[in-house]
Amino acid sequence: MSKPANPLLASIAFLYDLLVFVGNHLQSPLLFAIRFVWGIQLMQAGFGKLLNIDTPIGYFTQLGIPFPVENAWLVGFTETFGGMFLALGLLSRLTAIPVIISLTVAYITTEQDALHKLLSLDTDDFFAAAPFLFLFAAVIVLAFGPGAFSVDYLIARWRKLEWKSARL
Question: What is the Cα 66 distance to its own chain's centre?
Answer without folding.
Answer: 27
